[in-house]
Amino acid sequence: MIRWFWLACLCAAPAFAEDARPYGLERPTDFTLAFTQHDFDLARGSDRIDTTLKRIGVHWRERYGKHVRLGLLGGYSYLTQTGEPLTAGEQLDGYHAGVSIDFDAPLSSSFSFFAGASYLYERTDDANDLQDVTLSWNVYYAETGIAVAVPGAARFYAGFNYGDLDGDQRARGAVTETRDLSVDDRSGALGGVEVTLDGDGYAGLVARSGLYGGAGIYFGRRF
């Protein structure tokens, strides 16, 4: 169902970005570098696998019209798990790449509404002489909320999110199998703060529950 909701968001223009900083659309072009860590349980049949996912990513966004921006995002991904014999003690590494669309509407001189959607493909793997393991998935993510600005200083924001993950785990070698992957926790909340740096730059801190449970920091500049 989230796939259809996400597609509807893209067609209608409101949307949500994975780095949780979809407002500030007065910036014509925006480049962000983000460092995030997400802790969640991957559902594999009846099993729940404790998973930690770390990302180093970039997000490039261009404004189209007064309230909408389209973006490209991607970067490196690092994944570890406990309770899974095929990956225990290993760090899987790989990449993520996707697209986003953001919408922002001012409510007053200090308050604004934001919403957005993103699609992300992610793949991590590990290989040795005995075993190859690959985890890959598609992520559909959406969020909305309210931001409060302190002119020339900072923005504070909070809201709600919903996401879905659809993927698989493929093993070859001593164990050869393919298993479907999903998540149970799809909805949650988010909150963060973004501060202004030297006029054109900014830095922020964001925390979430739900699919992207965890925290991250990001740095960016407008052009």
Automatic annotation (TrEMBL):
Name this polypeptide is given: Outer membrane protein beta-barrel domain-containing protein
Signal peptide: 1-17
UniProt keyword list: Signal
